[in-house]
């Protein structure tokens, strides 16, 4: 992949981690909560990663209703207490459930003692998790599902429930087509409760009128950048009244079809016009 695309993906992902609840979803409390918790998880993890005392350790973070649950291993009680204080310093975190274990020299460090390499690996995994979570939230067919995402060494694990086998397969496909993912462990269980997916989709469609064109264009463009099968830098996106127009160039007809499919699945999109999206050397 081109270095420019890698830079664009990293930049877009920082935007995902820093994302705050949008006014467009004011009436959708659950969506706002999920987005807030995803932002807070990213903020806590970033604070750990940038702290030279904590960056060598593998610390997992889960946020629920303002409570940060910390798990993993650190080397001393001082590190354990420091992690708690750093987490409490993140906006919106009101309480910390500190489950960190003190394991001395057996704490999870990079085998070579190279903290920089460990940081790089964990940063990539955190970026992948944030990206996959965002794609699931933005997709009209998966945003209402109860899915937990975790990434270890570029392997994404999906846990939770899906309403149909098709929804389960879609979640796996969205994760698998994410840049940097080498494997997906799909542990989603198909729920026996019927109609939940349709209700979630209907709720998303009802909220469609409140979703701004700028938001749609941003999420379509980001989804292109996050997709390992598309060169999103060569595709332009313009949205008016929920109608998305794609322009630019793609290498093959298959890429064009994929771009249309990805755009159609974003919340609030009413239709996609790809007449201006050229294939190969078409003028």
Describe the structure.
This protein has 283 residues and is an alpha/beta fold. 43% of the residues lie in helices and 23% in strands. The chain contains eight helices and eleven strands. Strands 1, 2, 3 and 4 form a four-stranded mixed sheet that branches. Strands 5, 6, 7 and 8 form a four-stranded mixed sheet that branches. The chain has a three-stranded mixed sheet with strand order 9-10-11, covered by helices on one side. β2 (67-74), α3 and β3 (95-98) form a beta-alpha-beta unit. The longest helix is centred in the middle third of the chain and has 24 residues, at 115-138. The protein is elongated. The two termini are 25 Å apart. Residues 1-12, 14-27, 105-117 and 203-209 have low confidence and may be disordered.
List keywords for this structure.
single chain, 283 residues, alpha/beta, four-stranded mixed sheet, 8 helices, elongated
Structure at a glance:
By secondary structure, the chain is an alpha/beta fold.
Instruction: State which percent range the strand residues make up.
Output: 15-25%
Shape: elongated
Low-confidence stretches: 1-12, 14-27, 105-117, 203-209
Biggest sheet layout = 4 strands, mixed
Structural class: alpha/beta
| Distance between the amino and carboxyl termini | 25 Å
* Helical fraction: 40-55%
What number is the mean pLDDT? 78
Radius of gyration: 20 Å
| Order of secondary-structure elements | HHEEHEEHEEHEEHHEEHE
Q: How many beta-strand runs?
A: 11
Helical stretch tally = 8
